[in-house]
Amino acid sequence: MKSDRPITLSRECEAVLIPSGDKVRLAAGSRLWVTQSLGGSFTVMTDRGYMARIEGREADALGMKGAAASQPEASVTAGGPEEVERLVWDQLKTCFDPEIPVNIVDLGLIYRCRVTALAEGGNRVEVKFTLTARGCGMGEVLKVDIRNKILGVPGVKEVDVELVWEPPWNQTMISGAAKQQLGMV
To answer: Alpha helix (H) ranges present in the chain?
Structure first.
């Protein structure tokens, strides 16, 4: 959902500035333009030209319902680690770079996803990811988003998410479908 007309915040709400990652409070009455609503959050442009990410739980301040955040169906039961890994990859595809309307999997930001069975039952998931630029302050925001979405996968008991910088990300890591979506081919 993208808005050509400004939205006026009905109440104060929390946001994260993009790309710094600094937390801010946007005042009631602020004018915003929604530039994307993907993965359960909203990316907005303020009337001062700043970009910010607003979580879906703050949607009412925008006069909207919460952005759809995909979670595995409650009826889904995970089998072994292979099935859990498939569900984890599905969840990772619901995490989005707030500046680019492409999920972090198709952007090539996920370097590792490993699921291991725990002796006491359930599974542990380890994810290593990177960002499109070292100076981006959104790492911790995405780390929390990744962790929370993976914890919603049936059978997952532990999650370890690590931001890494090696190898450095580059545009060749973007999937073919994402390159088409972004008009790169």
So the answer is: 81-92, 139-151, 176-181
Instruction: Per-residue pLDDT tens, the chain, 185 aa: give them.
Output: 666 899 999 999 999 999 999 999 999 999 999 999 999 999 999 999 999 999 999 999 999 886 555 555 544 556 788 899 999 999 999 999 999 999 999 999 999 999 999 999 999 999 999 999 998 999 999 999 999 999 999 999 999 999 999 999 999 999 999 999 999 98
Assess contact for 156 and 122: CB atoms under 8 A: yes
Domains belonging to the chain, first-starting first, are 7-62 (2.30.30.40), 81-181 (3.30.300.130)
Written as six digits, the tokens of 138 are 């959104």
pTM: 0.87
User: CA–CA separation, 42 vs 24, rounded Å?
Assistant: 15
Instruction: Please name the residues in contact with 65: beta carbons below 8 A apart, sequence gap of 6 or more.
Output: 59
Q: Which amino acid is at 83?
A: E
56 touches 71 (CB < 8 A): no
Q: What are the phi and psi torsion angles at 141 (to 5°)?
A: -65, -50
d(CA 128, CA 102): 18
Longest dimension (CA), the chain: 54
